[in-house]
Write a structure and sequence with these properties.
Layout lengths: L5 E2 H8 L2 E3 L5 E2 L1 E3 L11 E4 L12 H6 L4 E5 L11 E5 L2 H14 L4 E6 L4 H12 L5 E3 L9 H6 L8 E5 L7 H9 L3 E4 L13 H9 L7 E5 L3 E2 L2 E2 L10 E6 L6 E8 L4 E6 L9 E5 L4 H16 L4 H9 L8 E6 L3 E6 L5 H12 L6 E7 L8 H14 L4 E5 L1 H4 L10 E3 L2 H7 L8 E6 L7 H7 L7 E5 H14 L5 E5 L1 H5 L3 H10 L4 E4 L2 H9 L6 E3 L7 H6 L3 E4 L2 H14 L4 E6 L14 H7 L5 E7 L11 H22 L4 E3 L3 H6 L7 E4 L16 E6 L2 E5 L4 E2 L5 E2 L4 E6 L17 E4 L2 E4 L9 E4 L10 E5 L5 H7 L4 H6 L6 E6 L1
Parallel strand pairs: 4-5, 5-6, 6-7, 8-10, 8-11, 9-10, 11-12, 12-15, 15-16, 20-24, 21-22, 21-24, 22-23, 25-43, 26-27, 26-33, 27-28, 28-29, 29-30, 30-31, 31-32
Antiparallel strand pairs: 1-3, 2-7, 13-14, 16-17, 17-18, 19-20, 19-43, 25-34, 34-42, 35-38, 36-37, 38-41, 39-40, 39-42
Length: about 800
C-alpha cells in the first residue's frame, strides 16, 4: 500500500525521476499552488508549467518559507538550495498523474467514478452522503474533476476507506484517456449528457464518446436507459464497452425500473422493481428532492447504492439524510468591520483547506478567526484528525479558534491556548461576544447538523433581501480567457474603478492580487487609497489624478497618469518638496480620442521634462476610441501607428524597459497584433465583450415581499399609472430606483425573471420598491426575483434604456449588499 507518508526515493521510483538531496525525506501533503499551502512540514510542492503560469518560478520563494520537498522538471538546476530534496522529471504534471495512478493501484476498495455534462457533482456528493452512514467513504473535494483535480483527489486514498467516489470532467477531446489511466474505476456512473462544456466538441455525440473512455476497464456502468443523445437511445452508444450495463428507467425496459407513486413540491415517492423484486409494488423509496434534475440524480444514487450491496433499509435511511449540495462559498460583510467567509454546509479536511485559502485572501484584515464544527467522515482517530486541523490553523496564523461540538472540544489541548470550545451551536451563540471578531476575517465552517447558518445570521452586518451576487469562478474564467489570447510575456492591467464596475473594488482587487495580475487601475486617488487600506499591494495606476492629490498619492505609493504639462510640473514640484526621486508615472498620449493626453506637438517639451530625477516613466499608453467597432478599424490602426511613432521619439529618455500599452477589452479580442508589453482589461473581466466565451459575473436579485389580488379596473402605484386590465396577482419587491432600477423600466416597459417566467413591471418604479404582474406564475412570498443575470441579461436592460452595460453596472449603489461566491 502506498500510504500517506512517502519518501522522495519512492516518488522517483514511481515517476522515473532523478533525485537531488536527501532521498529519504518524507512528505504527506501535495501542493500545486504557492499561494495555498496546507502547511510547511511534510509538504511536496509540484511545480507545474501551464500556458500562462509556471510553478517553477516560485520554488525559491517556497524554499525561503520552509518547503523542502519538490517535484520539478529536469531542466531546473536546484543544487544550490541546501537541504532541499528534489525529484526531477520530464513533465511534472505527468509525474503527478503517475503518482496518483500508483496510489489508485494500491487501493483495495471500490472506486466509483462519475462523469457526464450535468449533475455529476451532485450525484457524487449525494452518493457520498448516502454511503457514509454505512461505511468509510472518500470522495473528490468539491469539483476536483480535472487533469489536476483528479490526482489530488486520488491522493486521499488509503486503506481506511472501503469506497472512493471520484468525479471526472473534461473540456476537450483526449483528456479522458489520461483520467481513466489514473482512476481505473470499478463502477462508472454516466449522468445527463447536455450542452454544458461543449465549446471544444464538434457534437454531443463526440462529447459522449469521449466521456465513455472513462469506462474502458469498468466492471459495470450505470446509466439512464430512457435518455437519448442526438435522437438515439443512450444504450446504442454503449455496445463497445465490455462492462456490465446496469440501466435504470422511469419508463420500464431497464434493469432497475422506477415508477413515481406520489409527488409534491417537497418530496417524491418512487417504487422500484428489479429482476430480484419483480412484484407490482416493488420497493418503495422516499426521495427528499422533487424537481426533475434532482429526481434523476437521486435515482442514479439509489441504483449505485443497490449495486454496491446496500440494503433497502440503509438506502431509505440514507435518502432521508440527503442534504442540498451547496457548492458555493460566500464572502459577506460582518458586524464590527469584519468579513465573513461563509461555508456552513459541510465540514471535512479537504473543504477546510480550501476555505482557509479563501480566508487567507482577505488581506484587508490583520486578524483571522475560525469558527469550526466537528470534522466528519475523515476515517481518522480524533487525536490524529484534530492534530492535523490544529497544524493547518496554526500555519495560517489564525488568531482565534472557536471549536463547536464534542469531537473538537474533546481535543482542545491540541489547539492554541486562547482557543475557545463550545458543546453546540446554541452554547456558542449564548456566549458570543462581538469583540471576538472586531476587524477580523472570519471563517464560519460547519457540518449541516450544527446549523451554523444561525451563527452567520448573527454575525452578518445586514441581511437585506436585495443582493448583487458576484461569482468569483466566472471572474477566474474570464481572466483566463484573456490570458489565453495573450503572449506569455504580455502583462495585464485590470480596471477596478467605479467599485470595480459595481462589483466591489477591494474584494475584486484582493482576488486579482491572488491571481497575480501585474497592475490595477483606478479613476481617482481615493479609490487607490482605499485599496491600500484594504491591504492591496499591487501597483496601482490612477487615471484621473488631480494635481492637488499628488502628495496623498505619493504617501500611498500610487502611480499617477500624467496627461498635461501642468500635471508634470506640479508632480515634479511635489517630489522635490518631499525629497523623492525616481517616482513612477504613466504618460498618456493622445492619438485621436481627444480626451486627455499629450499630442505630437508636445513630444519635444515632454522629452526634456521626463529627464528629471524626480520622474521614472513606468509606462506609455494611449486610449483607443473605437476598438469595438469594425467600421472604425482603420482609425484604430492609425491610432496604433501614431502611438508607436510617439513612443519611439520618447525612448531615448524613457529607456527601453518602459511598458507600452494600447489595448482595452475589445482591443485584446480584435487586435492581437497590438498587444505590446501590457494590455488593460476592463468590462471584459466582468463578463461583457464581443467574445461569446465570456461569462457574466454578476446576478442582481431580490425576493417577493408581498402578494395581493387586484381587481380589474383598479390601479397600482403612484399616480395610478399601473392600470389593471384584468384580475391580477401583483408582487411587490424591495428594490427601486435608489437601488439602480431605472424609472423608465416601470409601467410594463421591462420584465424580471420569477420562477422560470418573465413578469412585467406594473406602475411606476418607486424609490425602494417595484411592483410586478405575476398573474399565472406559481410564486409565493420569499421567492427569488432575478433583476439581471443569466436569465435576464444586463445587456437586454441596457438596450431597453438605450444605454450601455457600463452604466447599469455602475449605477448599483453601495447600499445593495455584495455577496461573493465561489463554487
Amino acid at each position: 500500500m502506498v500510504e500517506r507518508v512517502m519518501t522522495i526515493q519512492q516518488l522517483a521510483e514511481i515517476t522515473g525521476g532523478s533525485i537531488i538531496g536527501d532521498p529519504h525525506r518524507q512528505f504527506s501533503y501535495l501542493a500545486t499552488d504557492s499561494r495555498s499551502l496546507p502547511g510547511i512540514d511534510r509538504v511536496l510542492f509540484i511545480a507545474i508549467r501551464g500556458d500562462h503560469h509556471d510553478g517553477h518560478l516560485y520554488i525559491d520563494e517556497l524554499y525561503s518559507r520552509g518547503i523542502r520537498c519538490f517535484l520539478a522538471d529536469r531542466e531546473e538546476d536546484r543544487t544550490r538550495l541546501n537541504g532541499a530534496s528534489f525529484c526531477l522529471v520530464n513533465d511534472s504534471m505527468e509525474a503527478l498523474q503517475q503518482l496518483a495512478g500508483e496510489k489508485r493501484k494500491q487501493f483495495s476498495g471500490t472506486v466509483v467514478s462519475v462523469t457526464g455534462s450535468n449533475g455529476k457533482t451532485i450525484v457524487k456528493e449525494w452518493l457520498y452522503q448516502l454511503l457514509r452512514n454505512c461505511q468509510n467513504v472518500v470522495r473528490s473535494p468539491r469539483s476536483y474533476n480535472s487533469q489536476l483535480g483528479v490526482p489530488l483527489s486520488l491522493w486521499q486514498l488509503s486503506g481506511q476507506f472501503q469506497t472512493a467516489i471520484i468525479e471526472a470532467g473534461i473540456s476537450q477531446p483526449g483528456e479522458m484517456e489520461r483520467l481513466e489511466r489514473m482512476i481505473a474505476p470499478d463502477m462508472g456512473i454516466l449522468t445527463n449528457i447536455g450542452t454544458a462544456h461543449s465549446e471544444h466538441f464538434s457534437s454531443d455525440i463526440q462529447k459522449l464518446r469521449e466521456k465513455l473512455v472513462l469506462f474502458a476497464r469498468c466492471d459495470l456502468i450505470i446509466y439512464r436507459a430512457d435518455a437519448s443523445v442526438d435522437g438515439k437511445p443512450l444504450t446504442a452508444y454503449l455496445d463497445h464497452l465490455a462492462a456490465r450495463k446496469v440501466s435504470w428507467s422511469l419508463q420500464g425496459n431497464a434493469v432497475y425500473r422506477y415508477r413515481i407513486l406520489n409527488r409534491n413540491n417537497a418530496s417524491v415517492e418512487v417504487g422500484l422493481t428489479t429482476p430480484q423484486d419483480p412484484g407490482p409494488a416493488g420497493t418503495v423509496f422516499h426521495l427528499p428532492f422533487s424537481d426533475d434534475a434532482s429526481l434523476e440524480n437521486q435515482l442514479h444514487v439509489i441504483t449505485a447504492a443497490k449495486e454496491l450491496g446496500l440494503e433497502n433499509d440503509d438506502i431509505e435511511r440514507g435518502l432521508a439524510s440527503l442534504e442540498p449540495v451547496e457548492m458555493r462559498l460566500q464572502t459577506l460583510k460582518g458586524i464590527r468591520n469584519s468579513t465573513l467567509v461563509n461555508d456552513v454546509y459541510n465540514s471535512d479536511l479537504a473543504g477546510l483547506g480550501m476555505a482557509l485559502n479563501v480566508l487567507d485572501q482577505q488581506r484587508n484584515h490583520r486578524r483571522r478567526v475560525v469558527i469550526l464544527s466537528d470534522v466528519y467522515q475523515s476515517g481518522m482517530p480524533d487525536e490524529a484528525l484534530y492534530s492535523e486541523v490544529a497544524v493547518m490553523l496554526a500555519f495560517r496564523e489564525v488568531d482565534l479558534i472557536c471549536g463547536v461540538g464534542p469531537g473538537i472540544s474533546g481535543q482542545q489541548a491540541l489547539f492554541a491556548p486562547k482557543s475557545m470550545f463550545f458543546a453546540h451551536t446554541a452554547d456558542f451563540l449564548e456566549h458570543f461576544d462581538p469583540a471576538w471578531i472586531e476587524q477580523a476575517a472570519v471563517l464560519i465552517k460547519g457540518a449541516r447538523k450544527f446549523r451554523f447558518e444561525e451563527i452567520t445570521q448573527r454575525l452578518q452586518l445586514q441581511v437585506h433581501k436585495t443582493v448583487l451576487e458576484i461569482n468569483i469562478n466566472e471572474m477566474v474564467h474570464n481572466l483566463n480567457h484573456f490570458r489565453s489570447l495573450l503572449n506569455p510575456s504580455t502583462r495585464i492591467m485590470v480596471m477596478v474603478k467605479a467599485l470595480a464596475y459595481g462589483t466591489g473594488a477591494h474584494e475584486v482587487a484582493g482576488f486579482l492580487q491572488h491571481e497575480q495580475v501585474d497592475y490595477l487601475a483606478v479613476a481617482f486617488p481615493d479609490e487607490g487609497i482605499r485599496l491600500r487600506q484594504a491591504g492591496v499591494q499591487l501597483p496601482v495606476m490612477v487615471m484621473n489624478a488631480d494635481e492637488n492629490d499628488y502628495r496623498k498619492m505619493l504617501e500611498h505609493h500610487l502611480e499617477p497618469e500624467l496627461f498635461s504639462k501642468e500635471g508634470v510640473e506640479r508632480f515634479k514640484k511635489e517630489c522635490l518638496d518631499l525629497g523623492l526621486t525616481a517616482q513612477p508615472v504613466h504618460i498618456k498620449l493622445d492619438t485621436g480620442m481627444h480626451r486627455l493626453g499629450f499630442e505630437e506637438k508636445d513630444i519635444a517639451w515632454l522629452s526634456e521634462e521626463l529627464q528629471s530625477d524626480q520622474i521614472r516613466v513606468r509606462s506609455l499608453f494611449t486610449h483607443l476610441a473605437g476598438s469595438d467597432a469594425p467600421q472604425l478599424d482603420d482609425f484604430t490602426r492609425k491610432q496604433a501607428t501614431a502611438f508607436n511613432a510617439m513612443a519611439r521619439q520618447l525612448r531615448p529618455v524613457t529607456g527601453n524597459d518602459v511598458v507600452l500599452h494600447v489595448l482595452n477589452t475589445a482591443g485584446i479580442e480584435r487586435f492581437p497584433e497590438y498587444q505590446m508589453d501590457m494590455v488593460r482589461i476592463g468590462i471584459g473581466l466582468y463578463g461583457h465583450g464581443s467574445s461569446g466565451a465570456l461569462e457574466p459575473v454578476s446576478t442582481f436579485k431580490t425576493v417577493i415581499s408581498q402578494l395581493r389580488q387586484v381587481k380589474k379596473g383598479e390601479s397600482v402605484g403612484y399616480g395610478r399609472s399601473g392600470k389593471v386590465e384584468r384580475d391580477a396577482v401583483i408582487a411587490t419587491i424591495p428594490v427601486g430606483y435608489a437601488d439602480g432600477i431605472n424609472r423608465h423600466l416601470g409601467n410594463g416597459n421591462y420584465s424580471f425573471y420569477v420562477k422560470g417566467k418573465h413578469a412585467p413591471t406594473i406602475g411606476n418604479i418607486c424609490m425602494d420598491m417595484t411592483m410586478l404582474d405575476i398573474t399565472g406564475i406559481d410564486a409565493t412570498v420569499g421567492d427569488i426575483v432575478e433583476l439581471f443575470g443569466r436569465n435576464c441579461p444586463v445587456a437586454a436592460m441596457a438596450g431597453q434604456l438605450d444605454t450601455i452595460v457600463y452604466e447599469i453596472l455602475t449605477s448599483i449603489p453601495e447600499r445593495v449588499k455584495r455577496v461573493y461566491i465561489r463554487e
